[in-house]
Every structure is written in structure tokens, then in C-alpha cells.
Amino acid sequence: MDDMLNVALPKGRLGEKVYEMFAAAGFPCPELLQPNRKLIFENPEANVRYYWVKPSDVAIYVERGAADVGVAGKDIIIEYAPEVYELLDLGLGKCRMCVAAQKDFRENPERTLRVATKFPHIAAGYYAGQSRDIDIIKLNGSIEVAPILGLSDVIVDIVETGTTLKENNLEVFETIMPISARLIANKAGFRFKNELIEKLCAGLAGVLGKERADA
Ligand code: PRP
User: Fold this and answer.
1) Ligand 1 centroid to residue 174 C-alpha, Å
2) Could you give the CA distance from residue 153 to residue 146 in angstroms, rounded to a whole number?
3) Would you tell me the crossing angle of helices 194-214 and 13-24 to the nearest 10 degrees?
4) What's the pLDDT score for residue 1?
5) Which atom of ligand 1 approaches the CA of 143 most closely?
6) Gap between the Cα atoms of 69 and 186, Å rounded
7) What spacing in Å lies between the alpha carbon of 31 and ligand 1's midpoint?
8) Cα of 156 to ligand 1 centre, how many Å?
9) Beta-bridge partner residues of 135
10) Which of 113, 132, 173, 208 has the maximum number of C-beta atoms within 10 A of its C-beta?
11) pLDDT per position as a tens digit, 135-170
């Protein structure tokens, strides 16, 4: 079996910050920072291999063991409930899952609430907890358009800066949960590559501790 640590990184700005943390934690791979379209990088000296994957796919790579560890948002972890270990909150990619609607929206408990979202399980769980009847409309992006065009009454979506809501005349009605990026590990990989994964966790905990002390 391959004895390198295989890491699935979320492609994009969050992934670049994650890589910097991993490098500082003892798993550098300088080639990864070069401007090119490669998706796989390795540094045999540091015993690490990185893959850039779509953020929402990280958990799939880790669950199936194609990667030993990865970094995924808590939103994805709750929505897809992958069979993985969640090891650390990296404190990156902070945002919140919210219910939002047009400013003049008034809740009518007599009617089924139409909810547009990329996160049908999170939305269903949230409204089940309130015994509220809902009709879920699963979309894949630009969710904010749905209530404006009358496709839905509300949306359940990620809010980071709030700019997208504001610029589309929507506002937050309820906050469902805070979200941040988590280090996840494949269950078998955690046993077989325990030494490497423990080294990574200890290194990341050191980086996080230093960041908090500097703040
Ligand atoms: C996410 C989310 C909101 C936006 C929130 O969309 O679905 O649309 O970011 O960010 P803000 O509060 O900082 O404005 P994403 O960029 O992932 O694109 P999508 O519409 O394709 O889902």
C-alpha cells in the first residue's frame, strides 16, 4: 500500500489557505503553488501527495479512501453525512447556514412553505425540528433568484459576507448553524496511516494555537 499521506484539497481560495496551514504543519509541497493547471502534486520528502478537487467532492474522495484526509465544510459534512472521522475545526471558511427571504415575506403557518436550497437534508432536518410542512425545491446554485421569481417562499443557503442577499433585496430570517472547514479522515486510513495523520493533527493544532495567540 502507498505509504504517503494523500490529501484532497478544496480547489479555490479556501484550499490555498488550507495548503498553507498543511505546509506550516510539516507537509510542504512547493510545486503546488506554481501557476499551472495540474491537479496532483507530490513531495516524497515530506511524504505527502495533494489533489485539488471540487470542494463539494472532498468528502467523497475521503469516504471512499481515494484520499486519506481532506478538508470539507461542515455544511457538506452534515448534508451528505459521509462515513468519515471529523478530526479538527480549522477555523477557515467561516460562514453560516441561514433561512433568507424577501424583506416583505411574512410566514403563514397555514400554508406549506416552499424552500429552495442546495442543502435538502439540512433544510428538511431544520423544518422537521419545527414540525413545519415544507416543499423542498432542490437547486444547484444562484439560489437567491428563487424567491425573487416566486419559485420559493424562502431559501436555505450559506451566508458569508451577506453581500449576495443584500444586493438581491433579501434578508436573513433565521440562522440554522455556523459553518467552518473541518479536517476529515478516511476511517481505514486513520488506522493504517495513524502516525502520519497524528503528525498532521499535532502540526495543525500547533498552527491554530499560534494563530490564536497572535490574534
Ligand atoms: C454561496 C452562497 C451564496 C453566496 C453567499 O454561493 O450560495 O450565494 O455564496 O456569499 P456572501 O454572503 O458572501 O455573498 P457560491 O459562491 O458558492 O455560488 P453558487 O450560487 O453557485 O452556489
Assistant:
1) 17
2) 8
3) 100
4) 56
5) 20
6) 6
7) 30
8) 11
9) 114
10) 113
11) 999 999 999 999 999 999 999 999 999 999 999 999
Tell me the whole-structure pTM to 2 decimals.
0.93
Q: Rounded to 5 degrees, what are φ and ψ at 55?
A: -50, -40
- Cell numbers standing for residue 5: 499521506
pLDDT digits (tens, 9 = 90+) for 83-92: 999 999 999 9
With a Cβ cut-off of 6 Å, ligand 1 is lined by 141-144, 157-164
- Residue at grid coordinates 479536517: 183
Pocket probe mutation, ligand 1, options 99, 145, 160, max atoms within 8 Å of Cβ: 160
- Gap between the Cα atoms of 53 and 152, Å rounded: 31
Closest ligand 1 atom number to CA of residue 118: 22
pLDDT over threshold 60, residue 106: yes
Give me the torsion for CA of 196, 199, 204, 206, rounded to 10°: -170
Q: What cell numbers appear for 214 in the block? A: 497572535
pLDDT at 125 over 60: yes
At 21-33, the pLDDT tens digits run 999 999 999 999 8
Pick from 62-66, 91-95, 168-172, 207-211: least confident: 207-211
Q: What span, in angstroms and rounded, lies between the C-alpha atoms of 60 and 77?
A: 10
> DSSP secondary structure string, 28-92?
--GGGGSSS---EEEEGGGTEEEEEE-GGGHHHHHHTTSSSEEEEEHHHHHHH--SEEEEEE---
